[in-house]
Design goal:
By secondary structure, the protein is an alpha+beta fold. The protein has 4 helices and 11 strands. The strands form 2 sheets. Strands 5-4-3-1-10-9-8-7-6 form a 9-stranded antiparallel sheet, with no helix packed on it.
């Protein structure tokens, strides 16, 4: 009996010694919610489905349609703030090569050339990082695919989750997305970009060598932690890190028609805040 007790105690000590360091290696997102509280699909994966909106800053909800004719007021679910109780979100840091820095400064002057001003697709990760989180995204998911249906530009991304390889001889505004699951986090590898997208209205840009790794982690029933690492060796001297939360939009809301046709011009890119004509250098 003493031998059995001694062996049992030894096994417990070894398990405790191993589990301690492993637990310390878990990310904050993995520790934020017990697995049992997350809604899951029949295959056991977290259920990301629903209508979501970037939660940091701005006038969220002004352009989301409601079935009863009202709008989602700013400050509700999907309203102001960094979301998730994680404090302010630091803006991305863009560290350019000398040649790319000169190009970026010139693009600030040529802000009217922003592809979104002509209703082109925003690319990745800009599709989710719209100014002030004005435009929601609908996520649809099954055991093989995750689809992102964006209100802005009516952009659609269909992501296979089998970690299949990227195609060859293919380039697109949104690139090509291939997903895989790492525990409860959806990891999406994105490449094959056409090099024509900007990252924002401030002239930050990428070229055809852009590569993005996205991470979608459902931290609770109404919050997705979104993380993206953008690398582009011909533009940036180090990867660009982005991190913010998506908050669930109430079920009575819906995506509206986005009446922006390719070739149109966005007034916010062509005028000053007071509505006056923007002065352009000749």
């Amino acid at each position: 009996m003493k031998v059995i007790l001694l062996v049992s105690a030894t096994i417990c000590a070894l398990v405790g010694a191993v589990s301690g360091p492993l637990a310390a290696q878990e990310s904050p997102a993995q520790r934020s919610a017990p697995a049992a509280v997350l809604r899951r699909l029949p295959d056991g994966r977290p259920d990301l489905q629903g209508l979501w909106m970037k939660s940091a800053g701005g006038f969220q909800g002004l352009f989301i349609g409601s079935l009863d004719g009202t709008n989602l007021a700013a400050g509700g679910r999907g309203g102001r703030g960094a979301g998730g109780g994680r404090g302010p979100v630091a803006p991305p840091r863009y560290e350019y090569t000398p040649e790319a820095e000169a190009e970026r400064n010139d693009r600030v002057r040529r802000g009217y050339e922003d592809p979104e001003a002509r209703c082109h697709l925003p690319g990745v990760p800009r599709a989710l990082d719209q100014p002030a989180g004005l435009y929601p995204v609908q996520i649809i998911q099954d055991e093989k695919y995750v689809a992102l249906l964006h209100e802005a530009m009516h952009d659609v991304r269909i992501i296979p989750t089998d970690n299949s390889p990227h195609p060859t001889n293919y380039w697109a505004w949104d690139g090509d997305s291939r997903g895989r699951w790492e525990g409860d986090t959806l990891v999406v590898d994105v490449s094959n970009f056409n090099g024509r997208t900007w990252l924002d209205m401030a002239g930050n840009f990428v070229d055809e060598n852009e590569h993005v790794v996205e991470r979608f982690t459902l931290v609770d029933a109404d919050t997705i932690l979104y993380e993206a690492t953008v690398t582009d060796p011909t533009v940036f001297v180090k990867p660009v890190q982005m991190r913010f939360t998506l908050k669930r939009v109430p079920a009575e809301q819906q995506i509206l028609e986005y009446s922006c046709l390719e070739g149109e011009r966005s007034l916010q890119h062509y005028t000053d805040e007071d509505g006056g004509k923007k002065k352009r250098e000749k």
